C-alpha cells in the first residue's frame, strides 16, 4: 500500500463572540500488489484502496458570549471504493449539525447550569456513512491465472436521520 496525502485545519480565536473553523484532508492511497484469492489473484496493483475518501472537509462557526452559545458544522466526505477491484463505491455524503444553548447564573449548589439543544443531520439526508464489510469484486471475473473469482456484496452502515436532543447540565 502507498498512501500520500495532506491535512490542514485552521481555527481562529473569538472575534465579537464568533470563531470560525475549517479543515480539509486530501488522500491518495493505492494498493501496491495484486490481491490473492485462493490460488489466484485479482489485478489490484495500482487500484485505489478501499475506504479511502479522496477528500474530506468541515466548516464550522461557533458563537459564545458567556451566556448564549451555539455552533454550526457542515461536513463533506467524498466517495470511497468498497471493493478491491474499484468496481463499487460508497457515494459521497454531507451532513450538517447545529447546537444552541444558554448558560444560567449559578444558584444554590448548581454552578453554571445550562440548557442545550442539538440538531443533528439538519437536512435529514439519507446516506450511507461507512463501509461495514468489503468485497473483493462486485462482478464475477477471471483472475490473473484464469480462475473465475465470484462476485461479492459489500455491506454499508446507514447514517442516522434527523435527531433533536435537549440536555440540561450543571457543575457542582
How would you sum up this structure in a few lines?
The protein has 172 residues and is mainly beta. It is built from no helices and 15 strands. A hairpin with a 2-residue loop joins strand 3 and strand 4.
Query: Which structural class do you get from the secondary structure elements?
Result: mainly beta
Largest sheet: 7 strands, antiparallel
Whole-angstrom Rg: 23 Å
Distance between the first and last residues' Cα: 51 Å
Topology, number of strands: 15
Overall helicity: under 10%
The number of distinct helices, counting runs of at least 4 residues, comes to 0
Strand residue content: over 45%
Task: Please write the string of helix (H) and strand (E) elements.
Answer: EEEEEEEEEEEEEEE
Net shape: elongated
Description of the molecule:
By secondary structure, this protein is an all-beta fold. It is 0% helix and 56% strand. It has no helices and 15 strands. The protein has strands at residues 2-11, 18-30, 35-37, 40-42, 55-64, 68-77, 80-81, 89-90, 93-103, 111-120, 128-133, 141-142, 148-149, 155-158, 163-171. The strands form five sheets. Strands 1-2-5-6-9-10-15 form a seven-stranded antiparallel beta sheet, with no helix packed on it. The radius of gyration is 23 Å and the shape is elongated. The N and C termini lie far apart (51 Å). The mean pLDDT is 95.
Amino acid at each position: 500500500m502507498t498512501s500520500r496525502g495532506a491535512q490542514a485545519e485552521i481555527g481562529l480565536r473569538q472575534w465579537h463572540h464568533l470563531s470560525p473553523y475549517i479543515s480539509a484532508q486530501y488522500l491518495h492511497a493505492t494498493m501496491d500488489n495484486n490481491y490473492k484469492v485462493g490460488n489466484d489473484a485479482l489485478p489490484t496493483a495500482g487500484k485505489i484502496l478501499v475506504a479511502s475518501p479522496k477528500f474530506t472537509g468541515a466548516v464550522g462557526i461557533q458563537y459564545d458570549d458567556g451566556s448564549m452559545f451555539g455552533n454550526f458544522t457542515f461536513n463533506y466526505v467524498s466517495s470511497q471504493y468498497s471493493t478491491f477491484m474499484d468496481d463499487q463505491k460508497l457515494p459521497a455524503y454531507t451532513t450538517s449539525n447545529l447546537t444552541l444553548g444558554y448558560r444560567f447564573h449559578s444558584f444554590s449548589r448548581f454552578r453554571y447550569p445550562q440548557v442545550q439543544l442539538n440538531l443533528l443531520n439538519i437536512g435529514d439526508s439519507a446516506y450511507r456513512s461507512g463501509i461495514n464489510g468489503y468485497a473483493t469484486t462486485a462482478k464475477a471475473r477471471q483472475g490473473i491465472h484464469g480462475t473465475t473469482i465470484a462476485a461479492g456484496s459489500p455491506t454499508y452502515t446507514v447514517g442516522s436521520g434527523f435527531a433533536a436532543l435537549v440536555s440540561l447540565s450543571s457543575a457542582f
